[in-house]
Amino acid sequence: MKISARNTLKGTIIEIVKGATTSHVRIDIGGAVVTASITNEAVDDLKLERGKQAYAVIKASDVMVGID
């Protein structure tokens, strides 16, 4: 796979929760969990399922910083 985004995190799908039109896909990336909201159609097209390896691809125009 080659893509232009540089922020890719490889992990394992631990949960897929399908809603009416979108799914929440949770990916464990070594102890941290990233959740993506994607269409149900994308889940089906990619044949996503629990236990399968996948990449969380992060493309953001802004990064926010917070402190306690």
TrEMBL record:
Keywords linked to the UniProt accession: Molybdenum
Presence of the UniProt keyword Oxidoreductase in the record: no
GO terms, biological process: molybdate ion transport
UniProt KW Transferase keyword: no
Annotated ranges, domain Mop: 2-67
Name this polypeptide is given: TOBE domain-containing protein
Organism name: Mesorhizobium amorphae CCNWGS0123
